[in-house]
Write a structure and sequence with these properties.
Layout (H helix, E strand, L loop, with lengths): L3 H16 L4 H8 L3 H13 L3 E2 L3 E2 L1 H4 L13 H27 L2 H9 L1 H15 L9 H29 L9 H24 L5 H21 L5 H40 L1
Antiparallel strand pairs: 1-2
Helix pairs in contact: 1-2, 2-3, 5-6, 5-7, 5-8, 5-9, 6-8, 7-8, 8-11, 9-10, 9-11, 10-11
């Protein structure tokens, strides 16, 4: 834990990051210390062009100092919000599968009703990206953070779509029970791997193997359904199940997009 002048310097840096003060007097007033003391503490950082006037902080240069660990890291809040979004997606994905398995219409309706929560969290991330030190990120990096949030939200949309299909009569025939369970297991694991990359920068390329397995399982299901033939009584079932499979496929595609956007974000963060 920092003490004395180092603790004060960290407090000064936080003030600069959060408020972009015009003068040293503004900083001194907020911390109830003298302007002269502010000038003395920040002079080495000004000389290194880490702190610039009007008072802003070069986060890339600051990150190379030991003090950086004691300054609120700008990505923490974003990562936390990503985690909340992920928990929402996984919770509703599980509920949707159970609803489909036992034809629970009311549970499916509940999933649809909760879709607004993900939208709200995505908007909160958008606001957070524009605040504090994250606004110093290069535009390309800010866009990657937004892309991650948007793709998590789209995963939620596909879950909501499936829930709506359930309310409209989507059911699983017994011969397809195991195949559909496998679909949900695959996309659940893909999503977890994608979010592990987002939260922990963990590289697990099994996600691409799962993508191949997902498409293979979808093809297997389509073959089984097509074996029913082209009688009119099966056409609507074939179409509805096709829509369900398309949402499953798109969910998997979004997992890949999340994984790759976070990979690119962390890679470029290191290069800056």
């Amino acid at each position: 834990m920092l003490r004395g002048k180092d603790a004060t310097l960290v407090a000064i840096i936080k003030i600069i990051i959060e408020t972009e003060p015009e003068t040293q007097d503004d900083i001194a007033e907020k911390l109830n210390i003298s302007r002269r003391y502010v000038a003395k503490l920040i002079k080495p950082l000004v000389d290194e062009d880490i702190i610039k006037h009007p008072y802003i902080v070069d986060m890339d240069k600051l990150s190379k100092l030991d003090l950086y660990d004691d300054v609120d890291k700008p990505l923490n809040n974003i990562i936390e919000l990503y985690g909340k979004m992920a928990n929402n997606v996984l919770y509703n994905l599980n509920k949707t599968y159970k609803s489909l398995k036992i034809n629970d219409i009311e549970t499916a309706k509940g999933v649809i009703a909760q879709d607004y929560r993900l939208n709200r969290m995505e908007e909160e991330i958008g606001v957070s990206i524009k605040m504090n030190s994250l606004r110093y990120l290069p535009m390309e990096q800010s866009m990657r953070l937004s892309v991650i949030a948007a793709n998590i939200e789209r995963c939620g949309d596909y879950i909501s779509n499936i829930a709506e299909e359930i309310t409209n009569g989507l059911k699983i025939d017994e011969p397809l029970y195991d195949d559909v369970e496998l679909l949900f297991n695959i996309i659940t694991e893909m999503f977890e791997l994608a979010m592990d990359r987002v939260r922990n920068n963990t590289s697990n390329y099994k996600i691409y193997e799962l993508e191949g397995e997902l498409h293979k399982t979808i093809d297997t299901i389509l073959e089984k359904i097509s074996e029913k033939g082209c009688e009119s009584k099966y056409i609507s079932y074939y179409i509805q199940f096709g829509m369900f499979l398309k949402d499953i496929e798109r969910f998997g595609d979004r997992c890949i997009k999340i994984f790759e956007a976070s990979r690119d974000f962390y890679h470029n963060l290191k290069q800056q």
